Amino acid sequence: MTGEYNGKTILPTIFQLQPIQNNIDLLNIYVGNPELKPAFNHSFSFTFMDYNKVIQRRWYLFADFGILNNPIVTNMSIEGSTGKNKISYLNLLHKSSNNYSINSNWVKLIQKRVLHTDLMLPLEVYLY
């Protein structure tokens, strides 16, 4: 049985920060935000494995949980006079998004045949 924690800072890209309007696509106007703050991702994982050679059975379980604090999101609005999309970036300060994942694998040898089952339950929950 093992457990693990990882923390990672997610910096905004230069494209997201640059306050100069980008006119590459004339229907979508991209404007950077120099006030963006880094986001931070917390990731927790748990692994369990049980193997019994006598009865030829193996069970594996993996669970993962992640929290993203101050995520950088895209803000899109339509300019009324031109109908163009204005796209900018902002932090959802003091907000987080969560994701959960559980994977399980069970294998059993039954009279020289292998019974193999897999279960995967990914779930993403965004709490703003």
Features:
mainly beta, Outer membrane beta-barrel protein, 68% strand, 9 strands, five-stranded antiparallel sheet, 128 residues, 1 helix, single chain, OMP_b-brl_3
Q: What do you see in this structure?
A:
- The protein has 128 residues and is mainly beta.
- It has one domain.
- Helices cover 3% and strands 68% of the residues.
- It contains 1 helix and 9 strands, in the order E-H-E-E-E-E-E-E-E-E.
- It has one helix spanning 14-17; strands spanning 2-10, 22-25, 28-30, 39-52, 57-69, 72-78, 85-91, 96-110, 113-127.
- The strands form 2 sheets. It has a 5-stranded antiparallel beta sheet, with no helix packed on it. A 4-stranded mixed beta sheet has the order 2-3-7-6, with no helix packed on it.
- Strand 8 and strand 9 (113-127) form a beta hairpin.
- The longest helix is centred in the N-terminal third of the chain and has 4 residues, at 14-17.
- It is elongated, with a radius of gyration of 23 Å.
- The model has no long low-confidence stretch (mean pLDDT 85).
- Residues 4-106 form the Outer membrane protein beta-barrel domain.
- This is Outer membrane beta-barrel protein.
- Pfam families: OMP_b-brl_3.
Can you give me a brief rundown of this structure?
This protein is mostly beta strands and 128 residues long.
What percent of the residues sit in helical stretches (DSSP H or I)? Answer: under 10%
Stretches where pLDDT is under 50 for at least 5 consecutive residues are none
- Rg over CA atoms, rounded to whole Å, is 23 Å
Q: How many β-strand stretches?
A: 9
Mean residue pLDDT = 85
The sequence of SSEs as H and E is EHEEEEEEEE
Strand content: over 45%
